[in-house]
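Follow-up to my post from last week.
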Amino acid sequence: MGEVRIDPLTRMEGLGRLFIHTEGEEIKDVRLEIFEPPRFFERLLKGKKPDQVIDIVARICGLCPVAYQLTAVEAFESIFEVKVPRHIRELRRALYCGEWVSSHSAHIFFLHLPDFYGRESFLELMKEKRELLEAGLQLRKAGNSIIELLGGRHIHPVNIRVGGFYRIPPAPRIENTLAEIESALPIAEDVLDLLLGIDYPEVEKERVFISLGNYEKYPITEGNIVSSEGMSIEKHEYEEHFVEYQLPRSTALYSRLKDGRVYEVGALARVYNNFARLPQDLKEKVEGTLPTRNPFKSIIARTVEVIYALREAKHILEKFEGGESHAEYSVREGEGVGITEAPRGILYHRYRVNSKGEVVFANIVPPTSQNQRAMEEDVFLGLKTLKEGDIRVLAERLVRNFDPCISCASHFLEVVRAPLRQR
Amino acid sequence: MKDKPRVGVFKFSSCDGCQATFFDLPSLWGYLDFKYWLLGKSKNELEVLDIAFVEGSVSTQEEAEFIREIREKARLLVTIGACATSGGIQALRNFGRLEELSSVYPEPEFIKVLERSTPISEHVKVDYEIYGCPINPHVLENFVKAFLHDRRPEIPSYPLCMECKLRGNICVMDAYRIPCLGPVVRAGCGALCPSVGRGCYGCFGPCKGANVESLVSWFEQMGMSRKDVIKLFENENAYSEAFRKVLEGKVG
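User reply:
Got it. Predicted complex:
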């Protein structure tokens, strides 16, 4: 029995390693080990009031803080039965679009793209494909600009509160951001053309894809939880259908369907389940390529979502006519869930608060912890199917296809103290 | 100007947000020779470095050992962000009582962490600290440029109120009685929170000579309860020396 170790994994957020067990030429087992130290967020949230929770949960992820904030907001607003005006819901959708653009662009250009040109980093790729990295920078900047407009800053925004925003941005600033979106859109379309023209390794996976869906629009915060197999459940039924479990190798909990099946969340799953809701011209452009079960083409799925999100944010900001910054509400005891489509897939929050509005219980299930088993299976399948090149490079690519965010994944454990002397 | 310095970017317990700032600073890419940066590169070698940028706090034994190894290799060690400079939001667990924090986790023996989440400076000598949750990219950019030109880097040490005044904001505490940490917090974000009508909650940590006692007595005069005052300091920099006193009940 041989063992191939990839330690640590690179060009991914957070710290993990991969073990591949082989017998001769044959792959026997694949294990993903997440050794990112847990930060115990669920425990830290106890006793905190909703608006402070919104600031704290942002710190779970520096790449997708908006997802954490808006998922928490959704949960609290359901507990307090806040009637959120339409213009605020729309602006939040635009804000979330900004994060999809920003986070996806970081992954597409800085982390993922070097794989398709056989380079070890974007800095190397920059030497021969400068224009491509420039495109990436401009797209990320447009995404960041949307977040800065509505959130105050693009990492850990400060403008989100229960009921709405602290302040609605003034019209001239909206104009500036719109101009940035305008100039980013053709760039994104060119990138899509380019990505449709390159070669991808041929792998087809069998996988249950889970996302939001069954909604009139491409889902970000709305809709039911749906699967590629036809399941459709309400958000509050999440914990009845999905189970978290623990394995010694990971500081993140694993997740599976109640019947034991492995599932996957993220851009590939979203596009698979909601292809019909994409704009006609985009659908036509990617016809025959998307929807797909080829994990390498997740880069195309993300690019399609970048275009969609830029257009959607543009549309919302153009028709915005002003309004109150937030809705008033009264605090009360209760429990509520929020589920939204973070860039890396569905993100689940459940909170229980007391009559003073303080959190007494929190449960957070991030996308990457849900994908852990799927990542191992993809590596197994990919290494079996594609018997070419360096096994280490290929295995790492198969994990990277998911855009894993290990920093997020590992932070959801109750506090356990293992003092030095016990080691 | 100096030759391309050899740099490493290291992650400890953190959210990746501060090191992601390097993605947004293309002006620096051509001037730095990245030798080690797991988020950005696949080829990484831990060799002698001119600058080690460190994100994150120390919360495991492995991390406590790794930071010593980095220190040995680095001419300059620069912490980036609140986790590395003061322990981060995860350092809130440092204030918990041991019995309260015993295992509620299904299989606790799998998880090994140190008792406290601590700033890098509790473990090794730190040459410069860049504050913020997240850091301000301009401060990082400025730092690197200063290094390249042998200038002294400018890292603000004055209070946030200065930035707020420069922006022409109305003081949220004076005008609306919204509690604000601005007078004791380091400038650097551009006074983002008061600019949207809310009080500063302390992302950049204590400023130089922060008079926390005085601000706490202001909050008390505004009628805030002890508990609510402490809550204000339960932030990303709670474990910094100046704020820690409040959480430990030693102020007010």
